[in-house]
Amino acid sequence: MKYQHNFNPTISDEDIFSEIVKEKEYIGYYNLVFQDTLEYKEYAKSVKQKNIVVIGIGGSTLGTYAIYKFLKYSKNLTKKLYFLETTDPIDIKSKLENIDLNDTLFIVISKSGTTIETISIFKYINSLITCDRDNTLVITENDSKLNEYAKANKIKSFEIPKNVGGRFSVFSAVGLVPLAIVGIDIDEILHGAKKRHDSFFTQGKTYARIVKKARFFIEYKNSFNINVVFSYSSRLEGFNKWYIQLWGESLGKVDINSSRQGLTPIGIIGPIDQHSFLQLIVEGRRDKTVTVIKVDDFYNHLKIPNIELTGLSELNYVDDIEFSLLINKQADATIESINNLKDIPCDVITIDSVSERSIAGLMYEYELLTSVCAKFMYINAYDQPGVEAGKIILKQKLQTKS
Amino acid sequence: MKYQHNFNPTISDEDIFSEIVKEKEYIGYYNLVFQDTLEYKEYAKSVKQKNIVVIGIGGSTLGTYAIYKFLKYSKNLTKKLYFLETTDPIDIKSKLENIDLNDTLFIVISKSGTTIETISIFKYINSLITCDRDNTLVITENDSKLNEYAKANKIKSFEIPKNVGGRFSVFSAVGLVPLAIVGIDIDEILHGAKKRHDSFFTQGKTYARIVKKARFFIEYKNSFNINVVFSYSSRLEGFNKWYIQLWGESLGKVDINSSRQGLTPIGIIGPIDQHSFLQLIVEGRRDKTVTVIKVDDFYNHLKIPNIELTGLSELNYVDDIEFSLLINKQADATIESINNLKDIPCDVITIDSVSERSIAGLMYEYELLTSVCAKFMYINAYDQPGVEAGKIILKQKLQTKS
């Protein structure tokens, strides 16, 4: 008997591991944890400006914003970081109004070097102030048009390696250089990421956790096509946005059998979205998994005071409780009420503290999870062919003014 | 022959209409367009403080924020509006740091009057500054504990009618009072909403559009369980958040046959999320409808200058184009690329201009759409029983310190 097939059955955990190990030889993000950061730190030290404006979009800004937003309130940062991401004129104008451009370093970030939003905004900045080697930095691929511009104008540039995709680039110069400049410890960042790297590639706890989770997501993808990340801290708002890009753009693909795949990411913030999205999770269709992210130590002891408000004494049980305890109890209550239903898959990630290591570890873990899910799904996590058609149509519209 | 059944087949458009007309007699939001705003405006005029801090969460803030965010950059508003929504201590602390509390009016908004987040934050404010009739306003139901507090302290209060749900309350005192205080024309707001009201209840264009759209959503709810609102302006970020609550909390319900219903709302912003979520829409599973919202006139003529940047001349086709044209062309290119695929349901809403009327019309239309969808789904759009369990668990945890 002869038998021929082109089915792609479920892969074993071991095969997933060896596929990822193989992929690590040509997909660049895995090994960013081994980078030498000396040049980044020396450059950072040389920056005199107080305002740092990153001009970029998508993968060029979201990871940096996620880390900055998470850490900025507990660090004594001497410089301020801003992001110009969109072509919305109101957004550009209102952001620039509050920044002294004469005391600003502009960091133009584009992997391809020809991102239309980024270059358009940078052109506009050029009409407001002279951009030169003293106030401009470029981060791009080595052979890009943007790097050609940098060289022609003797502007310093850092490289985005060809094999590091935009949404996987937070631990490259894209994220590390702006973060180092504002005073975040980028060695600690890489340390946090490397711990997950090591634990994964020695098939330790991180590996076991990720493979199990990814397998569940894929095996139940037709029942649960939506993955909700429910972060119980406003500091994680940037992380949520970064996760949405990472997950959506990496996993929304056509697989090797020409079948459309995709898990839809949703990022919500607790307790705010208990008053907005939780009802849908609890009573709506069973099409969602929920990952709750908690922060163990907020480094903040703001307390609800023991004050009697006439009429409102039934709420006195919150008196003398720290807000950080309240928000964590709110998370626990949400988790318990979801788990009581028994038919909503729910996992909980608790971050120890507000530190470089913890946020970097979380982000590296999500990158690994994305890569592993893509392997299970027989798709390429690292391209984004679906957005090219729109770019071509836009160019035609603008060139022909149609 | 006798035949008995308890099926609920698809309702006719006419039956939907008469159901909504019946509902209008006891569901309050529909008739908010007929309110007399004199008292709101007179109170607004009397406010001397420069900073207005709304303490509230969910339906008590999202609608007000949506309108404020949409309008604030094109109005010369003399007062600033802030929102304290979350129990995250970092959020509370960082927001209050930038506000002169001695020049602040605190507006405490809670429909039930005992929202734990709102009262906890208000207690904290009480430890920072004396809250009394000179700097505090309450908006709540007439017989709530919060109103009892207001009366006991001779603090002015406005009423949220019992039959107006939180997420449908933007056109009540909840939204209109804070907006009037900062200088937004609330008669124009109601005018914009009333236009949609009239067109719907005379079975005009609004009615035809909404019923058709709702019917499609419900008939295809098992294929397309996710509805994406893709707003091409950062000004609509607040609208997106408001829509997510309205849609998620109203439609995520158990229907009269005990079957779980729910359409999952996603709000994204263009062009930013072209670099994050569009790939998933275009190549991922066909489980999403897409509604693109465009703003016709941005009232802003910021232009990409005609500047030659060495190396980047291939992008010169953007020179001399206004950013508002660029962003609208980006929207058009996205719409065209989605429509070319022919298997993603996509509709486009174009708002004429940045005005009170236009944002209010859009919001009232979405309220009507939500009510009509709920009728098709045989669910109650106006309750949220799914979040009660978590509240009880939280109270237990806090009372027993478990």
Sequence of strands across the biggest β-sheet of chain A: 2-1-3-4-5
Order of helices and strands of chain A: HHEHEHEHEHEHHHEHEHEHEHH
CATH architecture heading of the largest domain in chain A: 3-Layer(aba) Sandwich
What number is the mean pLDDT of chain A? 96
Count every helix of chain A, treating DSSP H or I runs of 4 or more residues as helices. Answer: 14
Percent of residues in helices of chain A: 40-55%
How much β-strand is present in the residues of chain A? 5-15%
Summarize the biggest pleated sheet of chain A.
Answer: 5 strands, parallel
The CATH class of the largest domain in chain A is Alpha Beta
Protein name (chains A, B): Glucose-6-phosphate isomerase
Family (chains A, B): Belongs to the GPI family.
Organism (chains A, B): Sulfurimonas xiamenensis
GO molecular function, one term (chains A, B): glucose-6-phosphate isomerase activity
Describe this entry's structure for a reader.
The structure is a homodimer of 402-residue chains. The radius of gyration of chain A is 23 Å and the shape is globular. The first copy, chain A, folds into two domains: 28-184, Rossmann fold, CATH 3.40.50; 195-377, Glucose-6-phosphate isomerase like protein, domain 1 (Rossmann fold, 3-Layer(aba) Sandwich), CATH 3.40.50. Chain A is an alpha/beta fold. In chain A, strands 2-1-3-4-5 form a five-stranded parallel β-sheet, with helices on both faces. In chain A, strands 7-6-8-9 form a four-stranded parallel β-sheet, with helices on both faces. The N and C termini of chain A lie far apart (62 Å). The longest helix of chain A has 22 residues, at 356-377. Chain A has helices at 13-23, 38-46, 62-71, 89-97, 116-128, 145-152, 173-182, 186-201, 205-219, 237-251, 278-283, 323-341, 356-377, 388-400; strands at 51-55, 80-84, 104-110, 136-140, 157-159, 226-231, 264-269, 288-297, 346-353. Chain A has 14 helices and nine strands. Chains A and B meet through helix 4, helix 5, helix 6, helix 10 and strand 7 of A and helix 4, helix 5, helix 6, helix 10 and strand 7 of B. Chains A, B: It is an enzyme of class 5 (isomerase).
